[in-house]
Amino acid sequence: MSAVVGGLRRAVSRVVPSVQASSALPTLLLAPGELAPGIQASEFAARRASLAARMPLGSCALVPATAVAYMTGVIPYPYRQDADFLYLTGITQPGAVALITAGQGDMVLFVTDPDETRERWDGARCSAAAATDVFGAVAAYPMSELPRQLPRMLGSSSAVYYDAGRHASSELRALSTAELGVREGALRALRTLAHAARWRKSPGELALMARSSALAEAGLLRAMRQSGAPGVGEHHLAAGFERDCRWGGAARMAYPPVVASGADACTIHYSRNDKALAPGSALLFDGGCELHGYCSDVTRTWPVGGRFSPAQRDVYQVVHGVQQQLLEWCRPGATLRQLHEQSVRLLAEGVSDLGLLPGRSAGVIAQGAIRAFYPHSVGHWLGLDTHDVPGVAHDTPLQPGVTLTVEPGLYISDQERYGALAGIGVRIEDVVQINDSPGCSVLSRSVPTDADSIEEFIARGRGEGEPELP
């Protein structure tokens, strides 16, 4: 492999005619040397070196960009890059494949062939010159050369780390493992290695995570104040949240926002967002955005009318108390699995105290009855994907630089036997960064979580005047 890479280094200048390197970068947002705001090209090289150090010598990793998906005909969906590819290269555009070798982490890039007609419609693409001069590849090839050159490179590798089922470029999908030149038995899963490398965030990544969370916070604060205005519906709040996030620089929502009033708050991934807000109901709002690749994910529950009913407050206080205890346990050495087990125990006690189930909390847990009220995990890793790095097990001890969500909830179905508690759904979710000391920082702390502060915030906002609908 090293001989191949050396030859490619010498051939770079004649592979593809140059396109301005800046066409592949959001130059207005970047300082010199950056590939993403606050993240230097040298950090991307260090990421590749970290991945390479996890691979045995003589092996390589094959990492494709996500293929373009189409709504219909030639109309594409907004493009979103594969998280592993973005993390390792910094390239946000489609039509590229990276080959990273063990040892130093040298990268060879296959990029889109120059095509003036296509660029007239879709804009300039990352050129071979940009691949080497900006993104740090030791060599670059046009994609049309991939079927000929890639087997030559992979054939000498003792192991090839490649997730063949991923949505790769059509050029790569068209080749079988044998046609790629991979030795029999040499194919390995990339996901575990890549996710282990991505799990702990750098200072630059944490800064982007904090900025992404701040945009979500601003959108939620506005939604809290707008929710009681006459004629406001779930869709108004969803639209306002997206507007605030995108105005602040977010490329997209991290996921379809959940704006669920009344009993629909008990539907975990409710996304119709099409009802008028009824006075006296509670509203569960779960929203997040994606800023320069990094996702936020924040949930709050509040009373539409500005005051919790006694039943709403009772359920809310249980969930809030549980979340506060869980945040105290977020520290290095703890595990996400332990946090979940604690959340189950504490919420089971709360369910028993509310009179929803007879018996002691241990019995509620043992019988599995708590799942009727709390069917999801207490949280998940967060980063370049909303449900980030699933290849990292939940029993992995937390380390400084890890980011996750902490989101206990209770969902009481709309059944008469639950009386005044029927149809109440409460979830409180924050973005948490694990530190050396103190144990954690809450990146979404500016949106109030305790019941009294929520009511005070809404009342203060209402006093400043109701928002006008367009």
From TrEMBL:
<keyword id="KW-0464">Manganese</keyword>
<dbReference type="GO" id="GO:0006508">
    <property type="term" value="P:proteolysis"/>
</dbReference>
<dbReference type="InterPro" id="IPR036005">
    <property type="entry name" value="Creatinase/aminopeptidase-like"/>
</dbReference>
<dbReference type="InterPro" id="IPR052433">
    <property type="entry name" value="X-Pro_dipept-like"/>
</dbReference>
<dbReference type="GO" id="GO:0005739">
    <property type="term" value="C:mitochondrion"/>
</dbReference>
<dbReference type="GO" id="GO:0070006">
    <property type="term" value="F:metalloaminopeptidase activity"/>
</dbReference>
<dbReference type="InterPro" id="IPR000994">
    <property type="entry name" value="Pept_M24"/>
</dbReference>
<keyword id="KW-0479">Metal-binding</keyword>
<dbReference type="Pfam" id="PF00557">
    <property type="entry name" value="Peptidase_M24"/>
</dbReference>
<comment type="similarity">
    <text>Belongs to the peptidase M24B family.</text>
</comment>
<keyword id="KW-0031">Aminopeptidase</keyword>
<dbReference type="InterPro" id="IPR029149">
    <property type="entry name" value="Creatin/AminoP/Spt16_N"/>
</dbReference>
<feature type="domain" description="Aminopeptidase P N-terminal">
    <location>
        <begin position="39"/>
        <end position="171"/>
    </location>
</feature>
<protein>
    <submittedName>
        <fullName>Putative Xaa-Pro aminopeptidase 3</fullName>
    </submittedName>
</protein>
<dbReference type="Pfam" id="PF05195">
    <property type="entry name" value="AMP_N"/>
</dbReference>
<keyword id="KW-0645">Protease</keyword>
<keyword id="KW-0378">Hydrolase</keyword>
<dbReference type="GO" id="GO:0030145">
    <property type="term" value="F:manganese ion binding"/>
</dbReference>
<dbReference type="InterPro" id="IPR007865">
    <property type="entry name" value="Aminopep_P_N"/>
</dbReference>
